[in-house]
Amino acid sequence: MMRLFLLGSLILFSTAASAAVGPTNKDLLLLQDKLKARALQAPSYKKSDLIFDLPLTYNQRVSYWISYFQTRGKSWFSEWLEKSTRYLPMIQKELSSTGLPQDLVYMVMVESGFEANAKSSAEAVGPWQFILATGNRYGLEVNWWLDERRDMKKSTLAAVHYLNDLYHEFGSWYLVAASYNMGESGLRRQIAKFGTRDFWVLSQKGALPAETMDYVPKILAAMMIAKAPGVYGFDRLAKLDPLEYDIIQAPGGLDINELADHIGLTHKALRDLNAELIHGFVPDKIEKHPIHIPRGSMALVSEYLTKFYVKK
Asked: Residue of 119, 182, 260, 287 with fewest CB within 10 Å of its CB?
């Protein structure tokens, strides 16, 4: 097993025997050399893309998921990589502002592929896949017309607080990810039962659900590919503009589709921007509710609201 840490231009690593299939230690060091050279040449605002601020372990399961993303999963993983350019800046900013590793952003990639309307069989919802109880615990409102778990910014802020709490308890980013996936209480029991806080030892002892055992390797594989997609065969990726919007206070009764028609936007585009509105409207009984509108569309939206109030 190899554990490797990049901090600025300093590379620290230790090696032990590994039965990994895939890139060799030499390949990984070559990748680090490439990233180091790029980091030295990159503008300061891009340097965080070229270093790892999570401990990087390379083993057989990480190798498996790298290979999977390169082959059977390449089509949808390419879409994840393209969508990441839209959402990474905002999510990494929020992680960094709280002192959390920016590479935790790859949890969102693995959880949902940055899909606001993602929903699991366990009723977890949104980009960060909050279940109802945990979402409520961290301030996300859910009712018949509103689900703040679907809002990228609100759910990210909730996730930042949740991840911070998990780290204070478990003291390991791998265990933070494991507890996020399987639940804190289940992980506490397994740590007490087996007497270890080493994620890989818990995995080897069969202490974790199969999904959780693969959850950390998936994150590490996604992180490695996303840092240098060309090295792994992901070329010609489209780059999306970072998520930007203005916020207005929408009156009760406002229909997102009608507003989209007025400002010349597709229904889907504006509804995606306001994914927390489950049915695409603000109920009449609500006095006002903040909604997102495309940057630069304020004049058109104000024009629509004037007509809306007259009609109402």
From this structure: 287
Pairing of strands 2-7, 245-251: unpaired
**How far is 78 from 43, CA to CA, in rounded Å?**
25
Q: In this predicted model, what pLDDT tens digit does every residue of 155-164 receive, in sequence order?
A: 999 999 999 9
DSSP H/E element including 261: helix 256-263
Rounded Cα distance between 48 and 3, Å, is 19
- For residues 131 and 123, the answer to whether their CB atoms sit within 8 Å is yes
Residue found under tokens 């009723």: 123
| Number of residues in the chain | 312
Q: What pTM does this model have? A: 0.85
Structure tokens at 113: 């592929």
Q: What radius of gyration do the chain's Cα atoms show? A: 22
What are the chain's domains?
2-232 (1.10.530.10), 245-311 (no CATH)
Q: Encode pLDDT of 109-126 as tens digits.
A: 999 999 999 999 989 999
**pLDDT computed for residue 26 by the predictor:** 54
Q: Identify residue 289 by its one-letter amino acid code.
A: H
pLDDT of residue 307: 84
